Amino acid sequence: DSYVWFEGIRFPGSGFDPEVFREVRDKFVVKNEDTITVTYPKSGTNWLVEIVCLIHSNGDPKWVQSVPTWNRSPWVETIPGYEFLKDQEGPRIYTSHLPIHLFPQSFFSSKAKVIYGIRNPRDVLVSGYFFWRETNIFKIPETLKEFMELFLQGHVAYGSWFEHIRGWLSMRERENVLVVSYEELKKDTRVTVEKICEFLGKKLKPEEIDLVLKYSSFQFMKENKMSNFTMLPDSYVNENFSFIRKGVTGDWKNHFTVAQAEAFDKIYQEKMAGYPPKLFPWEEC
Ligand code: A3P
């Protein structure tokens, strides 16, 4: 089997271990000075990570050009990420795709900052379909139709999008949690980057913000081997794999049939009932 299971959720088979999930949840000590990017996979994680790293370096691109994403901001729930982070001194920057109930529990009594990135689940689904198909990290069915069924049931990597969102959004009023959508980042990147700076307590000059925008742009990240996963071992990826794929909002419209869009909507409405629509900018797109 190419999957690892933990608490009823499927994870990729390589780089993960149920024992590590347990330790991460129960024993990992989150520090007050930590900055953590949290997302459901394919929500624009790496874009946010790039922005966070560049804010940290005041727009200097050296770090993002010399160190791969997963070393600059390791995924805490992976075996190597956990090994690295648990002994790291000082303030740390790291990443996680964990749903809230599997997240390090020490976070909830800390002042560490979480940036929770969200994206239209239809685009998350399409982005995931191409990503998982072109890599051998997590096996998925051939057709988008079959993948959609699994996605809606939560039988995909990291479980249900709906549960992930509901869990993390319950934290949205906390001072140390900032919710950022892919859609607002696309629509007004500067304003959103300034919002992230303010949340992180970083005062960047306008020209430094210009550099953050330049080096986290789609084109720059696509060409930067340290961001665009071109260093993944060949055994993981198909030929012509580009992690930075299309980078737009609403690509789902090119892939869903009318019937699929309706079926998706029905479940979306049921599961997301009760949330103010303005929380989710994709409802206006
Ligand atoms: P698409 O597959 O729709 O193009 P994650 O990092 O969570 O895996 O998300 C990957 C998605 O973010 C991909 O979406 C990718 O193209 C997009 N992305 C990455 N960097 C980006 C950038 N600088 N600007 C816009 N989108 C970006």
Automatic annotation (TrEMBL):
What InterPro entries does the entry give? Answer: P-loop_NTPase (IPR027417), Sulfotransferase_dom (IPR000863)
Statement: the UniProt record of this protein carries the keyword Lipid metabolism:
yes
EC number, UniProt record: 2.8.2.-
Top-rank taxon, per record: Eukaryota
MF GO annotations: sulfotransferase activity
Q: Where in the cell is it found?
A: Cytoplasm
| Alphabetical UniProt keywords | Cytoplasm, Lipid metabolism, Transferase
Q: Which GO terms describe its cellular component?
A: cytoplasm
Pfam families, from UniProt? Sulfotransfer_1
Which family does the UniProt entry place this protein in? Belongs to the sulfotransferase 1 family.
Please describe the quaternary structure of this protein: Homodimer.
Q: What is this protein called?
A: Sulfotransferase
